Task: inverse folding
């Protein structure tokens, strides 16, 4: 790996509650290079909050603290809104889980992509339109002219997610954070969307943070995996070695999945231990 | 236990009528678990909802326990035989009714006696215990809510459960607990399951046989063992099995 695109040390996200402070992310470290980094964990493990913290999307009274959070050596921790807006969408982009909720229902697809692109590229409208068409082609949408003039409710889930990816990648970001980008999609569409992301990561040398609850998918799709539990990283390992994971939590998660190739009468149930919450 | 013959289900009126299921036919023996798999829009959940009487527009024949069902309504005897568990435990429980109120109401509707004892028994059956009796849904995790939904379905002492993606909203470790619970309940109460899922490995784990659906039609019916072995008679089944096996990088020039 070359010099990291993103370097994070001791990242913490804290929310005040009536019962005192709650830390959703409790001191995690990682570096992201030009690679596909998977972040897996169950609901509430802090994986999505990590992605949001990097993009400065944690709203007050939530707090983000870190010893270091650098994009190519430049600190992006708690930047003023104005500076963060230039980075968010421009240099670091995010694709969310469900295109139904992330596309504006009353704007055409084309208007949305053009708006997103012009915000960062300051290109004339005609050039932005060309770019939008080109991006829709890059995510393998047939007949991009027609899709440009469609509204989000007129496209399928898989196409919506490809449109989101096209929109997020138009300004040529260095890092893409994908938060469960394929969970709302059918399996056959999922493969297509993953192929597109894979190709874009390789061809453009982007860094990808792939947040998912699906261990098998991450093992097959990513280069490296962080496993999160209760706001901490419990294990980091090369994706191809995921099935040889050591940590009992990772093992428990893997074992609790029913498998087509290995029938069992009863599924092993994960026994959680308090010690996993410690370092 | 359940027989579905030439079931066609539609939504809306002509000229905007959309047919969601075309001529589905299958049978479930007493004690059998049968799965319906397919991608979104294939009609698998629509079949369940039509059986449960939640969709008025259908033709064909639905026979439960030897009794033909009418198109427009279901009688009390039907709901004592058939109950349904829905996908999203966050949406299927009333946010302002306690667990006790949910179960008591169902038991009263079914004309049950000894409601107090039955509630305690139901909570024990689904592994929650009486400590959960007076809690509200927001005080429960997703897995605990799904247990309450299962307890509610069991309150009528049904013999056939319609399970609509019962674990797809849950984490994998919680999914394992709920699938084990469903398997235990099936053994204890001699239940018959008709289960819908998009997850082939969940269906293979729970069911004896399954129907593969595509665009409203049953493509084929096969034993779970064939699914495990990757032996579908139809190309679509094989395609679905391959796609479910996970991600394969595309060949690069």
Result:
């Amino acid at each position: 790996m070359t010099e990291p695109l993103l370097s994070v040390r001791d990242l913490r996200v804290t929310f005040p509650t009536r019962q005192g402070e709650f830390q959703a992310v409790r001191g995690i470290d990682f570096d992201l290079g030009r690679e596909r980094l998977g972040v897996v964990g169950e609901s509430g493990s802090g994986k999505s909050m990590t992605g949001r913290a990097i993009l400065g999307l944690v709203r007050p009274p939530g707090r983000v603290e870190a010893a270091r959070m650098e994009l190519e050596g430049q600190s992006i921790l708690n930047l003023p809104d104005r500076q963060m807006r230039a980075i968010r969408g421009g240099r670091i982009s995010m694709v969310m889980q469900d295109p139904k909720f992330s596309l504006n229902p009353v704007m055409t697809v084309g208007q949305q992509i053009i708006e997103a692109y012009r915000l960062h590229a300051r290109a004339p409208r005609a050039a932005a339109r060309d770019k939008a068409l080109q991006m829709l082609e890059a995510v393998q949408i047939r007949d991009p002219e027609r899709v440009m003039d469609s509204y989000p409710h007129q496209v399928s889930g898989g196409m919506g997610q490809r449109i989101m990816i096209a929109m997020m990648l138009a300004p040529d970001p260095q890092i893409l954070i994908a938060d469960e980008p394929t969970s709302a999609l059918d399996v056959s569409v999922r493969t297509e969307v993953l192929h597109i992301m894979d190709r874009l990561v390789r061809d453009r040398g982007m860094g990808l943070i792939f947040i998912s609850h699906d261990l098998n998918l991450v093992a097959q799709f990513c280069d490296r995996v962080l496993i999160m539990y209760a706001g901490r990283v419990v294990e980091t390992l090369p994706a191809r070695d995921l099935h040889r994971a050591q940590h009992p939590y990772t093992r428990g998660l893997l074992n609790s999945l029913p498998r087509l190739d290995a029938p069992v009468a009863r599924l092993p149930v994960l026994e959680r231990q308090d010690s996993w919450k410690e370092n | 236990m359940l027989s579905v013959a030439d079931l066609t289900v539609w939504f809306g009126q002509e000229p905007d009528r959309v047919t969601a299921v075309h001529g589905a036919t299958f049978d479930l023996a007493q004690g059998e678990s049968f799965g319906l798999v397919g991608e979104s829009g294939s009609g698998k959940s629509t079949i369940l909802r039509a059986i449960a009487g939640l969709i008025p527009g259908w033709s064909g024949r639905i026979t439960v326990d030897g009794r033909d069902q009418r198109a427009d309504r279901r009688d009390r005897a039907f709901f004592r035989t058939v109950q349904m568990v829905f996908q999203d435990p966050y949406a299927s429980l009333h946010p302002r009714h306690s667990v006790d109120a949910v179960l008591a109401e169902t038991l009263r509707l079914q004309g049950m006696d000894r409601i107090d004892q039955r509630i305690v028994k139901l909570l024990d059956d689904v592994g929650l215990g009486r400590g959960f009796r007076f809690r509200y849904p927001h005080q429960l995790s997703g897995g605990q809510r799904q247990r309450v939904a299962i307890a509610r379905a069991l309150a009528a002492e049904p013999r056939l459960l319609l399970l609509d993606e019962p674990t797809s909203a849950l984490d994998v470790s919680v999914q394992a607990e709920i699938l084990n619970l469903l398997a235990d309940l099936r053994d204890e109460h001699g239940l018959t399951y008709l289960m819908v899922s998009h997850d082939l490995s969940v269906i293979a784990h729970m069911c004896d046989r399954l129907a593969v659906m595509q665009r409203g039609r049953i493509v084929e019916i096969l034993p779970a063992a064939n699914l495990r072995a990757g032996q579908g008679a139809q190309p679509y089944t094989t395609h679905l099995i391959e796609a479910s096996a996970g991600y394969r990088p595309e060949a690069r020039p």
Q: What stands out?
A: Chain A touches chain B at residues 42-43, 157, 186-188, 190-191, 194-195, 198-199, 213, 215-217, 219-221, 252-253, 256-261, 263-264, 266-270 (CB under 8 Å).
